[in-house]
Each structure stands twice: as structure tokens, then as C-alpha cells.
Write a structure and sequence with these properties.
By secondary structure, the chain is α/β, with parallel strands linked by helices. It has 18 helices and 14 strands. Helices cover 47% and strands 15% of the residues.
Length: 412
Amino acid sequence: MALWLATPWIVIYLLYRSLRQPEYRLHWNERFARGRQTAAAPGCIWIHAVSVGETRAAQPLIEALERAWPERRILLTHTTPTGRATSVQLFGDRVERRYLAYDYPGASRRFLAGVRPAIGILMETELWPNLLAEAGRLGVPMVLANARLSARSERRALRFAALARPALAGLAAILAQSAADAERFANLGGVRIWTTGNLKFDVAVPTAQLDLAAQFRMRIGGRLVLLCASTREGEESLLLAALGAAGLPESTLVVLVPRHPQRFGEVAGLLRSHGFAYQCRSDGRRVAPATRVWLGDSMGEMFAYYGAADLAYVGGGLLPFGTQNLIEACAVGCPVIVGPHTFNFAQAADDAIAAGAAVRVADAPELMETATRLLASPDARRDMAERAERFACVHRGATERTVERLLPLIPV
């Protein structure tokens, strides 16, 4: 009933989001499972990856599933247009794609009846009670893969235990990123839980991205580069204020890459208001010596930005959004700074800090102080870079362990 009452607000939300991202006006029939629902051959392997991060994390799993079950089509569903665009970039026509219908009982029923998957794999934290109930009724095994649950999310979920417990208990498997995640899922009533590791460690760095990193370095010249990657709303103001007061040499180029493309214009406005000389990555020109900030207004190039950087702050952690994916930076040997809020990647952040691949700071001024110190010390950066690559390497293998747990659930 609550979801039906929320329907007008859902429509308003989609229209509001479409003001910045017109893609939100497309494919509404999929969001409500109306019209033709068949998106893949019956018996497909269906994976739900809500947005960009989950879609990228699914890449090694999808490639392994294609090798293990070449006769089965893969259906990849999303919630956001950026997630859908990322799947086009990564997989092209190799997979079917659509938006997952909102969790109305009728919409879930129509979606599953039309698609008829052999298995459903939900990435990370996506628990849809009506969808899981309908899958159980139809005998579709559902798996939560690369599953994570922060302590904060566990506390929130305990307030809705009446919904969370049956949803978790009905899953055919919960494949957790870490032992701590597995324990939290068990506290909420999850069963059939295994710790398989984080799939994001298995994402291979594309050669094309390394080539692009070399092109970036040519455009930048010989300057030291501090990358502020995947920054969230409110963080850029903190970073720019701290940069203005910091002792960071003016020859250092700050590369600023907002997480969401709809904010590129907003961040450009912030740069103007703070008085920083800046250029956009999209202008195609060499970075001028007088340019203090290079605005990364592009999508799907994060590995290239990390490959071109001498040091990176991985955004989301200065404010309570949660740090974004620091594993990508480590994979290309880029030393990492994280903020105080790392609950999105709690285990990875703690392990990277313990390995000497990353350092944690309390706020933006300390971030700039730390960056100034590390950029002045090639030996310290080199040591952190080597530790970052080793850290990323030793944590690989989650894909193999995940596929091993999926084997009994997917018919031959």
C-alpha cells in the first residue's frame, strides 16, 4: 500500500532527475514492467547492478559466467541511466539490458514472468521484498553477490527486520565481501552465507585506459598531479577552500573529477567562484601552465585519471556519503588518501591503510597537508605505489569463488 501511495512521488522524482539527466525520461515502461517484457531468452542468467559501481564490479563475474555457460544469454538490469550507459560501454550487445521494475507486486510478477530467468543475481545490497517473494513463488533461485552491509546499514535494517529477515532467509546464497559483512547479514536473519571476497579486486585495468593515461600525462606535461576522484556534492567546496589555504605548490595540478556527470557544470561554477584558473578535460587542449585545476568532465575514464596521477584522494569520505572505490586506484599503483567516512569500502579501506597503500585524514585541511608532504617525497610515493599494487594483487580471486558457489544453482 505504501508503495502505491508513493507512485506520484516516484513519477515526480523521475521528472526532477530528468531536468539534469534527460535519460530519466526514457524506458518508463520497463520501470513499471508494462508492455513487452521479454528481454532475453528463457533460462537467461539475470544480474541486477543498480548503478555504475555495481555494473563495473559485475564485469569479471559476467565474463566468467559467459565462459562457464556460453549457451545462456545474460540479462543485466539497472536502476540509473549512468549504470545502463556503463553496461553499454563495457559489454555492448553481448548482454541484454533494461531497467528493473519498481518493487510493486504486480510489476515484479510481470517482469519475472516475461524474462523467466534461470537465476537472479543481485549485486551488493539490493534487497527488493516483493521481487524476492515472487521469485520464491516461481522457483527462481536468488543470490546476493559481492554482498556488503555496513554497521550503519545493519542498524537501519534492524528497524525494518520484519521485511529484511524473510527477504534474506529466502535467498539461495549470500556471497559476502568480508567476514564482517557475513556476520552482519547473519545477524539480520541471513542463512547460506559464504565469504567470497570483493569482485572489484578482479576488475582488470583495460589497456586502452592505460594508453589514455599516457595521453593525459602528455597533455599535463611534467607537473605533479593531485587527483580528487569521484567527489560528491559539498566536497568540492571543502577541497577548494583548503586548496586556497594550503602550501601545495602552485605548479601542482589538481585534477577534479565529480562522481556524477550532471554536476560537471555546477563544479565548473564553483571553480569560477573560488577564482581558480581551470580547464576541462573535454576541451581537447594541452593543460596550460597557468591552469591550477583540470576538471574531469568525462565518464568511464577513472582508470586513466588514476594512471596519470601521482596521488589521489578518493572522494565521498570527507562527508558522510562513504568513500568510493579505492581499489581502482590501487590496481594502477596510485597512492591513496581517504577521508574519515569509509563505510562503503570499510574492509578495503582498513586493509589498504594497514598495507601502507593508503592514508586516512580527518578533514580537507589535513588532506591538503598530507598531499603536500607526499608530493614533496618521491620515495614515500614510490613506496605507497608499490604497496598499493601488492595490496590489489593479493586480494584477487573473488570471481572464482563466486562462480564456484553459483555452479549448483544454475542448471547445466
